[in-house]
Write a structure and sequence with these properties.
About 50% of the residues lie in helices and about 5% in strands. By secondary structure, the protein is α/β, with parallel strands linked by helices. A hairpin with a 3-residue loop joins strand 4 and strand 5. The chain is globular and about 65 Å long.
Length: about 350
């Protein structure tokens, strides 16, 4: 059986010639926002999304039934259990020689996991609102990507290991303990505040669909910052299509003030990457400061959020697609030339 790549949100952790004034002005125009959205009607699409509450099946039982329940879970959900009980997710070094059933049994007997489950059920015993949000998002997913399968969705507890992950396009997994609210006491000491501020119920659907967008894009080793910017910009562009009614601040994982700061300082952000010779930097350690979660973007004002390079990539991709209306989102995914997308996004004189 061919193994798929596990794509996850792990919650732990050429120089460029200077532009002339005229060229920089064109770049400024490049990032002018198109506020209008052409939102398709997906109300006719039937979506019977299958959501399995695996944590409920694991822990919502009598403690005397743990062994028999573990056996039942292996039989009922063999593909998921194989992943969940693997070294990539929940299996620890001490259990390397244990069966999947033994791993589940051990986890189900753990008092900390049971306590975490009980706490999560205060927030997520009723999952219907989130299921409805996922169903709506997958209607747009089906509209734009009709050939793609609709995944089976599992909710589970990973003891703060994973916010979620995909296993090919057929499986989407959500770690519910990561959406308990930004002030959830257990996050203190585990996650930095700039990260846990996004661990709220209203982020659950958006973060989950971001994983699906990443699955569509696949893995492509970048050469430089521009490649990462465009790849992450594509992801945010797809997320915008799948969640057209979701606030930008949720999709970008910014506060409202941070989202506004980016919109108000587009030119300054772009100029920073140009002046610092970062756009074609191949130093991953250097450019990851602007593509990974951080409190602010180093070298920018303290009001700046992290991941500003991703946000700029999103603006480039939006402009590229606006200037090339004949291209589909699949064409965008297939286009691997980041420089072409950058150049193709520039406006002409009639813009």
């Amino acid at each position: 059986k061919k193994k798929k790549a596990l794509s996850y949100k792990n919650t732990y952790f050429k120089r460029f010639s200077k532009y002339t004034a005229a060229s920089i002005f064109l770049i400024f125009i490049l990032f002018s926002c198109n506020k209008g959205k052409n939102i398709p009607d997906v109300s006719h699409i039937e979506m019977d999304l299958e959501v399995i509450r695996f944590e409920k099946e694991m822990y919502g039982i009598d403690s005397n039934l743990i062994e028999s329940k573990a056996k039942e879970l292996v039989k009922a959900h063999p593909d998921f259990v194989e992943i969940y009980a693997s070294p990539n997710v929940m299996r620890e070094r001490a259990w390397q020689d244990s069966s999947e059933q033994a791993v589940l049994t051990h986890l189900m007997r753990g008092p900390q996991m049971k306590m975490l489950y009980d706490t999560c059920m205060v927030q997520f015993d009723d999952f219907s609102a989130h299921e409805q949000g996922l169903e709506e998002a997958f209607k747009y997913y089906h509209h734009y990507f009709p050939e793609q399968p609709i995944p089976k969705v599992y909710t589970c507890i990973t003891e703060f290991g994973y916010q979620g992950f995909t296993y090919g396009p057929e499986l989407l997994v959500i770690g519910t303990e990561h959406y308990m609210g930004s002030d959830f006491p257990a996050y203190t000491g585990i996650f930095p505040r700039y990260q846990s501020k996004n661990f709220t119920p209203k982020h659950l659907v958006s973060s989950s669909m971001e994983l699906m967008a990443g699955e569509l894009l696949g893995q492509h080793p970048p050469k430089n910052l521009l490649d990462v910017m465009i790849q992450n910009g594509k992801k945010l562009y797809i997320l915008d299509l799948l969640l057209p009614h979701t606030p930008d601040s949720i999709k970008w994982q910014y506060t409202g003030d941070q989202a506004e700061w980016c919109k108000d300082n587009v030119f300054q952000i772009w100029e920073f990457f140009i002046n610092e010779d970062l756009l074609y930097s191949e130093n991953r350690r250097e450019y990851m400061k602007y593509t990974s979660p951080t409190p602010t973007s180093p070298g920018m004002p303290s009001e700046s959020p992290g991941r500003t390079a991703n946000w700029i990539g999103y603006q480039i991709v939006k402009k590229y697609m606006k200037k090339n209306p004949q291209k589909t989102v699949q064409d965008l995914i297939n286009e691997m030339d980041s420089q072409k997308i950058l150049k193709g996004g520039k406006p002409d004189r009639g813009d």
